[in-house]
Amino acid sequence: MSFRTLDDLGDVTGKVALVRVDLNLPMQDGTVTDNTRVRAAAPTILELADKGAKVLLLAHFGRPKGERVSTQSLSMVVGAVQDVLGREVMFVPEIAGDVVRQSIGILRPGDIAILENTRFWKGEEANDPDLVKAIAANADFYVNDAFSAAHRAHATTEGLAHVLPAYAGRSMQAELEALEKALGNPERPVAAVVGGAKVSSKLDVLTHLVGQVDHLIIGGGMANTFLAARGVDVGKSLCEHDLAATVNAIMDAADKAGCTVHLPYEVVVSKEFAANPASLRTSNVHEVAADEMILDVGPMSVEALGDVLKTCRTLVWNGPLGAFEIEPFDAATVALARTAAALTREGSLVSVAGGGDTVAALNHAGVAGDFTYISTAGGAFLEWMEGRELPGVAALEV
Hints:
By secondary structure, this protein is of the alpha/beta class. The protein has helices at 36-50, 78-85, 98-106, 122-125, 129-136, 170-184, 203-209, 220-229, 244-257, 299-310, 331-345, 356-365, 379-385, 391-394; strands at 16-20, 27-28, 31-32, 54-58, 89-92, 112-115, 141-144, 166-168, 190-194, 215-218, 260-262, 266-270, 281-284, 293-297, 314-318, 350-354, 373-375.
């Protein structure tokens, strides 16, 4: 796909930039607890400010459903944004109209302001053309730097791109370029690791991937459902037995597409879900007792999966292989992640990962910095893996 970036901008001195960012930050007792999303947007914000633009930040915060909710005002994140940017930031309690116009008059070239929570206006989620025009009336161009919100066709994520010159910010650009390398036009062979608790939550992902990748590695509780569908007794394991026909259809589609589906043949089981339980043991998948639960992939299976990755050039990863939050059921995820990281470091593998649990798991393994790219987007990353068109991205195409 082709889209304009900040490199395509001419002189922006004194011009007004509407920049859609993700400031939906986690809060506790009125304090921001994680500024990752601010740090992701900082390069775009600072580049525009340093080039002399008046930068107006657009973002949502929570789900106020078209009402003004004081605890969901973006005024609460101004301090956190200032800390990351190292600049003073003005807060504007509107997103359109005279108040915004007057605030722009106060701003000098290079100044930055945060507009109020876009979801205080019902027209935001409805992508109301009148609201789009009202917001756009105060600006010269639009920059979308919020891939995490790109799966929403809202006024500030999609609508503005149709009425103003539109550009991808640096974070959006990096995300789109990484995703293009991973599934758009990847170097083959391609492997995908898909884990997590339930097949039902990732049916569309699995259905799409079998036609896109050469190797599909299934982990987490999802693997139990696949094993059960193949006639394996998984004991008390988390399992969606009612999806057997669906799983078998996915397996059949994989066969037709030439995609190899990898299921664990050795697993880690326990009679209780607790840290380092006395009943912990490693078992062949055909020897799981009726009162045991499969909680991780066994070391021999992980070694075999590592060998698969060594034959691949591209990897897409979403979801852990086991119940990684509790030791020792993090072992398989950590081991395979470290193998992928080592292959990436030596230049033989392009590795792209995304999703909340995935980011947490890779951080836990200490290898997040070694992957080619890690997406912090949740829903948008999953919808991309499902092969869906993301409205906020499509609107940027030229």
